[in-house]
Amino acid sequence: MGFLLSKSMDANLKKQQEFMLHNSRLQMERQILMQNQMRERQMAMQIAWSREFLKYYGTFFTVAAVGLTAGAIKRKKPALLAPIVPLSFVVVYQMDSAYGTLIYRMRGEAENILASERDRLDMPEGIPTFDSIEKARRARSSLASFLEK
């Protein structure tokens, strides 16, 4: 009788472990999907910001370029055209960021770094561990209790 009960309990335990594994797998998949959606939304906001900034900066650049060109012609001083060069670099960068291939080039470079320069990504003092976090928490807790006295 005890053997049958033990066998039944082992089967139930195994089913429960499989159920827990399945649930934890589902939870992790959901977390990965949620984090990816958040990343996509943040990237969309960054691209939208670049496009909005380009509208304002493009207007400023156009007004500045027309004004500087008119001033250079009127005063016969070609040196007044000099600020257009650095300002145009910013316009081109923003256009590339907002509508061009900058994001694809950045992604390619990031993939290259991950593939061949992984050592550059190491954190100072390594990845935080449970023990290091607990040590910092205890130190902070004891400091707070010391300051309260």
TrEMBL record:
<keyword id="KW-0472">Membrane</keyword>
<keyword id="KW-0812">Transmembrane</keyword>
<dbReference type="InterPro" id="IPR019319">
    <property type="entry name" value="Plg-R(KT)"/>
</dbReference>
<feature type="transmembrane region" description="Helical">
    <location>
        <begin position="53"/>
        <end position="73"/>
    </location>
</feature>
<keyword id="KW-0675">Receptor</keyword>
<keyword id="KW-1133">Transmembrane helix</keyword>
<dbReference type="GO" id="GO:0010756">
    <property type="term" value="P:positive regulation of plasminogen activation"/>
</dbReference>
<protein>
    <submittedName>
        <fullName>Plasminogen receptor (KT)</fullName>
    </submittedName>
</protein>
<dbReference type="Pfam" id="PF10166">
    <property type="entry name" value="DUF2368"/>
</dbReference>
<dbReference type="GO" id="GO:0005886">
    <property type="term" value="C:plasma membrane"/>
</dbReference>
<feature type="transmembrane region" description="Helical">
    <location>
        <begin position="79"/>
        <end position="99"/>
    </location>
</feature>
